[in-house]
Amino acid sequence: DAEITQSPRHKITETGRQVTLACHQTWNHNNMFWYRQDLGHGLRLIHYSYGVHDTNKGEVSDGYSVSRSNTEDLPLTLESAASSQTSVYFCASRGELAGDNEQFFGPGTRLTVL
Amino acid sequence: KQEVTQIPAALSVPEGENLVLNCSFTDSAIYNLQWFRQDPGKGLTSLLLIQSSQREQTSGRLNASLDKSSGRSTLYIAASQPGDSATYLCAVIPGGFSGGYNKLIFGAGTRLAVHP
Predict the structure, then answer these.
(1) FRET pair for A66, CA 20 to 30 Å: which of A22, A51, A99, B57?
(2) In this complex, is the C-beta atom of A33 within 8 Å of any C-beta atom belonging to chain B?
(3) Taking CB atoms and an 8 Å limit, are A50 and B101 in contact across chains?
(4) Cβ pair B31:A105 closer than 8 A
(5) Which residues lie across from B62 on neighbouring strands?
(6) How confident is the model at residue B70 (pLDDT cuts 50, 70, 90)?
(7) What is the DSSP letter of A27?
(8) Sign of CA dihedral B25, A57, B44, A95
(9) CB < 8 Å to B46, chain A
(10) What are the start-end ranges of the E strands in A1-79?
(11) What is the rounded CA–CA span in Å between residue B60 and residue B113?
(12) Of A33, A101, A104, which is closest to B100 when you measure between CB atoms?
């Protein structure tokens, strides 16, 4: 079965360190998304990609970057982790055509920045 | 700008009740509408997807309806069980039939508790 996976599931890091969260999907979807979820803010879009070598900023992109070198993966990098980036991060993917436009989410990565 | 609202924010019911969760959106030009479930500390699970051209979708005890003209969707849960306790999120992709590349816009969710 097709799926979307994230790793690690839990991460503790220190302020100032670079951190990369992995996202891998086997749906062969062109569209991939990164969200963060915090109490009181719901889901907020960080970055998204509509295909290989395409990346776009979401509503809370400062301090984050993504790159898309293939269809399956969209890693999220925190350039210099800050305590404000402690959150749960979700990756998602979706097709863009009718019949393939259901959005699926990964299980999440809980990141703590000390 | 599309906005999605879910009412009520929280709901507590005894086991066995049939219940309705409401979702409203401000712009009727949507590409699709999706209902998700999120358990505490877990990811989002897709429950039902309604395409713009559809009026409803059913899966087991769940039925979701869509009325674009009034900007509303309802999620009906029949014979609720304690295992249904979770947060239910409604989300729309705006943009009508050309919305395939647009982003999901989420409601804040309804927190449901079903007690034995």
Answers:
(1) A99
(2) yes
(3) yes
(4) no
(5) B59, B77
(6) very high
(7) S
(8) positive
(9) 102-105
(10) 4-7, 10-13, 19-25, 31-38, 42-51, 54-57, 64-66, 76-78
(11) 19
(12) A101
